[in-house]
Write a structure and sequence with these properties.
Blueprint: H1 33-36, H2 53-59, H3 66-79, H4 81-96, H5 101-128
């Protein structure tokens, strides 16, 4: 029973694959929409979120200490505004303007990606400065 991890005990940092960020290039598949006009192609823009692992994979190798956790909280606070602005833009667009559902899907997919990328960049910035 010595290998049993108790609830609430600190975990070791996650091991990220070195090349997970390459999946971000699949986000360019979203531009197929302009040729096929299929809504499902717009969701491919969400793959841009994988570019965030380029920064977080480098930082994940460090053992979490007090500064690491503090910077994590600062980055989460900074990132909080991205989904809020995205949802606000979708809400205003639906209620005030007659925007199409294609634009709504595009804003949602890009907002999803921007949230992860903003977190990764903010966390990296706070760790380095």
């Amino acid at each position: 029973m010595s290998n049993f991890r108790k609830w609430g005990s600190p975990r070791s940092p996650r091991k990220y694959s070195r090349f997970t960020w390459v999946l971000g290039f699949m986000g360019f598949l979203g531009f197929r929409y302009f040729f096929s006009y299929e809504i499902s192609d717009l969701f491919n823009f969400s793959f841009f979120a994988f570019f965030s692992t380029y920064f977080t994979a480098r930082l994940a190798a460090e053992m979490p200490d007090e500064r690491y956790k503090e910077n994590q909280l600062k980055a989460k606070a900074t990132t909080m505004f991205v989904p809020a602005i995205t949802l606000f833009a979708i809400g205003v667009g639906i209620s005030s303007f007659s925007i199409s559902y294609k634009v709504i899907v595009l804003i949602a997919a890009l907002g999803w990606s921007a949230t992860f990328i903003t977190y990764a960049l903010a966390f990296w910035y706070y760790e380095k400065h």
